Amino acid sequence: MSGDLNNGAQVSIVAPLTLIQRLKDLGSGMPSRIVLGALFLWGVVLVGPGIFKWLLLDATFSGDAAQCHQNGGACWAFIGTKLNLILFGAYPPESLWRPITFVALIAAVALWCLFRVRHHTVAIVLWVLAALIGYLLMSGGLFGLESVDRARWGGLPITLLISIAGLVCAFPLGVLLAMGCRSQMPLVSVPCRLYVDLIRSVPAITIVFMTFAIIPLILPDELIFDKLFRAGIGLSLFTAAYFSEALRGALQALSVGQRQASASLGFGYWGSHAYVILPQVIAHSLQPIANIAIAFVKNSSLLMIIGLFDLLGSARSSLYDENWQGFYKELYLFVGVIYFVICMYIQHYVAAIERERRARLYQ
Predict the structure, then answer these.
(1) Which residues contact 313 (CB under 8 A, 6 or more apart)?
(2) In order of start, what are the domains of the chain with their CATH numbers?
């Protein structure tokens, strides 16, 4: 009987289709797929040459704004001239090695995690340590480093720091909220349910603005955090509600037998959740978790309304130079590529975790 079940489980596993396989399926499927494929190719042929000409053939890679206007193509010279401002904001030029080191450290941790997807605990520790080291590097004041005011922070390091710290704080809070919503005690479940419903009913920009403007009014001066911390807290509180809903659905779908099995092994409430229930719940919620993490990265652009220049905010500030006017297309394309790389990494990392989990279960 167990052999039949194992065979059935193995048959149900389908390897992800590659891009070439998907393109082949366009020609071997229904006529609608053939039509859609033909329309896509027609659109590429129609639009592709013009985009390629603007991006590369007529582009200006060095020079000034006059040369860019004269050539008529993309002005990558503008990106090169404003690169430090776009990526690192108003950080002191003589200390740019600090944010560059932080970004390089994040890239190294990201690559390590991608090729070591099985070491989840080590990965979390590395992300936290990387964010902490980056914060200390950019702040200065230690090991002989000159202090840098946070008002001069900006660009990609702000986006990475807020995203890592915010997600690390939001996910445990989301787990506790999901458990609280499923609690049998009304004193626990009702407040958790009200919190989740309230947070999900307001936009993220409202939460960020409230943490920036309202907290200083209700707390004494000695308890008021820096606006960078307040913004991170606001986004974390907002994202935790969405994590809670993603996990709560998986909690409800988990069979009662899992809880009974953990109880028969002698686990209490917290032990059964830590060793039996939550590992399964998180494993079945990886794709929703990835979607929420991607949304968090993109929501970091809201920090501009409270005077924090993240990647998008620093990029927009480069447009105020009167010597470089009208090159917003190149700017937003460049920034969009960076956001695309970050979001695709999150998606690819979660897919790698899922593949590794399937390999362990069905090997």
Answers:
(1) 89, 154, 301, 303, 304
(2) 17-57 (no CATH), 92-320+327-362 (1.10.3720.10)
Residue 281 or 227, more confident: 281
Residue 306: closest CA among 197, 100, 158, 134: 158
Per-residue pLDDT reduced to its tens digit, 57-115: 888 888 888 888 888 888 888 888 889 999 998 899 888 999 999 999 999 999 999 88
Residue 220 has pLDDT above 80, yes or no: no
Tens digits of per-residue pLDDT, 267-280?
887 888 888 888 88
Say whether 310 sits in a helix, a strand or coil: strand
C-alpha torsion angle, residues 333, 337, 343, 345 (rounded to 10): 170
Q: What percent of the chain has pLDDT over 90?
A: 27
SS3 185: coil
d(CA 164, CA 8) in angstroms, rounded, equals 40
**pTM of the predicted model over 0.85:** no
Copy the structure tokens of residue 84.
Answer: 């430090």
Residue 226 CB burial class (10 angstroms; 0-12, 13-18, ≥19): exposed
178-184: long-range pairs with CB below 8 Å, 24+: 178/243, 178/244, 178/245, 178/247, 178/248, 178/251, 178/281, 179/251, 179/273, 181/244, 181/248, 182/248, 182/251, 182/252
Reading the block at residue 330, the tokens are: 């190149």
Nearest-angstrom CA–CA distance, 261 and 250: 18
Q: What is the average pLDDT value for the chain, to the nearest integer?
A: 83
**Please, are residues 289 and 297 in contact by the beta-carbon 8 Å criterion?**
no
- Residue 259 and residue 272: Cα distance in Å, rounded? 7
